[in-house]
From TrEMBL:
<keyword id="KW-0812">Transmembrane</keyword>
<feature type="transmembrane region" description="Helical">
    <location>
        <begin position="171"/>
        <end position="193"/>
    </location>
</feature>
<feature type="transmembrane region" description="Helical">
    <location>
        <begin position="292"/>
        <end position="312"/>
    </location>
</feature>
<keyword id="KW-1133">Transmembrane helix</keyword>
<feature type="domain" description="CAAX prenyl protease 2/Lysostaphin resistance protein A-like">
    <location>
        <begin position="217"/>
        <end position="304"/>
    </location>
</feature>
<dbReference type="InterPro" id="IPR003675">
    <property type="entry name" value="Rce1/LyrA-like_dom"/>
</dbReference>
<dbReference type="Pfam" id="PF02517">
    <property type="entry name" value="Rce1-like"/>
</dbReference>
<keyword id="KW-0472">Membrane</keyword>
<dbReference type="GO" id="GO:0080120">
    <property type="term" value="P:CAAX-box protein maturation"/>
</dbReference>
<feature type="transmembrane region" description="Helical">
    <location>
        <begin position="260"/>
        <end position="286"/>
    </location>
</feature>
<feature type="transmembrane region" description="Helical">
    <location>
        <begin position="95"/>
        <end position="118"/>
    </location>
</feature>
<feature type="transmembrane region" description="Helical">
    <location>
        <begin position="130"/>
        <end position="151"/>
    </location>
</feature>
<dbReference type="GO" id="GO:0004175">
    <property type="term" value="F:endopeptidase activity"/>
</dbReference>
<protein>
    <recommendedName>
        <fullName>CAAX prenyl protease 2/Lysostaphin resistance protein A-like domain-containing protein</fullName>
    </recommendedName>
</protein>
Length: 313
């Protein structure tokens, strides 16, 4: 603006020295702005107007990433790329396909199918844990296939997820801090829940049966809950859902929504708050490091700690 205004003022000063109708000497008509207006009604007026318009246009604010609202702590600490292999409009359709077509049948009906195939009324602990591991791996495979099927043509989802396990920041620090914070928050929420609702048995009877079985069953149970389950859930809820949501909304909102969906998907009212906290902490760690290794480590350590406490109970 400081460069444009003096030039405009000089132009107006020169225009005032002209006379309407021409003529020389001192007997001419008094100064008027009429000629100046006529002179500026053509391309020069448009040029001058454009100069003022450009000079007065607001500059983009630092850190503006095109999303609504000012940047916040979550956005500033995130290093996730906004480029994703899926169309934004397809995010929820893809997740719905995963949840209703893949997750629900396998997670809540898979063991029943196994029991029918084996022609037995109930599965023993060893068969239960082996079948659950198999079902989880099948679910992960089908989920990745679905994500590839719904991806934008030309995008390799496998390469996309391989890139999510690289270490761009110190994920070890994030994992240690995240795990400590998670256990603290879960302890607090558990105490509050016990005060408000009353104490209740937090461990699944089937889980207790597996942990009280042979050492092999115990080992496979830890593999299931500390490796296979976190790998599957972090791939879907952080690697896919959180990353996809963060490409079109604030990071804070993406973490909250993906954590809420993660908690609801377990269909466990008693563990709803704890699961939501797990989603928030793992999501924040993932956003800060850009790698699923950090969120997977936190999730794995948390599940292992829960199993260890169940084993001691």
């Amino acid at each position: 603006m400081l460069l444009i205004a003096p030039a405009a003022a000089s132009r107006i000063h020169l225009l005032r020295s002209r006379r309407v109708g021409g003529g020389g000497g001192g007997g001419g008509a008094p100064p008027t702005f009429a000629v100046g207006v006529d002179a500026l009604t053509g391309p020069q007026l448009r040029s001058l107007s454009s100069s003022f318009s450009c000079a007065c246009s607001p500059l983009p604010s630092p850190g503006d990433d095109g999303k609504d609202g000012a940047p916040n702590l979550f956005d500033e600490s995130s290093i996730l790329s906004p480029v994703i292999p899926w169309e934004v409009d397809d995010i929820w359709r893809t997740y719905a396909g995963y949840f209703f077509i893949v997750h629900m049948p396998l997670s809540f009906g898979g063991l029943g199918v196994v029991a029918k195939v084996l022609n037995c009324s109930s599965l023993n602990p060893m068969t239960t844990v082996i079948s659950t591991i198999t079902l989880q791996l099948v679910e992960l495979t089908l989920a990745l296939s679905l994500l590839q099927y719904t991806a934008i043509p030309g995008h390799d989802v496998q390469a996309y997820f391989v890139g999510k396990v690289s270490t761009q920041r110190n994920w070890i620090n994030a994992a240690v801090l995240g795990f400590g914070l998670l256990m603290t928050l879960v302890l607090i929420t558990s105490i509050v829940a016990d005060k408000l609702i009353g104490p209740e048995d937090a461990y699944d009877p089937t889980l207790k049966d597996i942990l009280s079985d042979s050492p092999t069953s115990k080992l496979l149970c830890f593999v299931l809950y500390s490796v296979v389950a976190p790998l599957s859930e972090e791939t879907i809820y952080r690697g896919f859902l959180l990353t996809a949501l963060s490409s079109s909304m604030k990071m804070r909102d993406a973490i909250m929504i993906s954590s809420l969906v993660f908690s609801v998907a377990h269909l466990s009212g008693a563990s709803f708050i704890q699961l939501f906290v797990v989603g928030c902490i793992t999501g924040l760690a993932y956003c800060r490091t850009g790698t699923l290794v950090s969120s997977f480590t936190i999730h794995s350590l948390y599940n292992a700690a829960i199993l260890f406490m169940a084993l001691l109970s």
